Amino acid sequence: MISDVAVLPAEPSRLGMSRQTGYTRTRTVPPVREWLMLGAGLAAVIGSVMPWAKVSGPILGKMSVSWVDGSDGWITAGLGLVVTVYGGLALRGQRTPAAAPVSAGLSATGLLGIGALKIAELQPTEADMQRAGRWG
Fold this sequence. Notes:
By secondary structure, this protein is mainly alpha-helical. The chain has a domain at 30-121. It has helices spanning 32-49, 71-92, 99-135, and strands at 51-57, 61-66. Helix 1 packs antiparallel against helix 2. It is elongated and about 70 Å long. The mean pLDDT is 77.
């Protein structure tokens, strides 16, 4: 037995189309990338300036060390500032030169490289400190 099958068009709202006009609607996407860039840049700047090691002893007194004490800290602060400025401009929707996203991407890559290098430098130092603590 053969029956007639009617093919009905899909509901317009399920296709992302407006019922009145039939044109597709545009959805606003939250600016997640821009917020991430702004936050990462601020974290790099703040992390470069804040103290990351504190030592107190009877003879030396209290000492603190931050990344800006060496040359790496100023480099990371500058790179973080570039990423922060680009993230802020992009978040505000301002037009930026074509070189701005490239420089922000290179700055972020530079921060990643410096962080990986510092982690690689700390691992042998940690092993040396553990050996000195056991036998020293």
